[in-house]
Inverse folding.
């Protein structure tokens, strides 16, 4: 395996592991939002922002292996 292949494999593995954590955070925020009282709009807004941030982070993580395939590599 060459350095580029190792970098892409690392990026894919890392993205996969991080997406699991992000999915758990999103699920917890969704469950909390379902249980949170509707008369506390600040809490509902916070939980909604958490879900949105988790969605954006998951999308970014989807691009990580492809980005790693074109990152410049330098020789030491």
């Amino acid at each position: 395996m060459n350095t580029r292949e190792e970098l892409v494999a690392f990026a894919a593995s890392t993205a996969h592991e991080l997406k699991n954590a992000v999915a758990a955070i999103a699920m917890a925020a969704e469950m909390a939002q379902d249980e949170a009282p509707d008369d506390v709009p600040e809490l509902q807004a916070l939980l909604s922002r958490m879900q949105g941030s988790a969605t954006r982070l998951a999308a970014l993580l989807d691009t990580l292996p492809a980005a790693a395939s074109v990152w410049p590599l330098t020789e030491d």
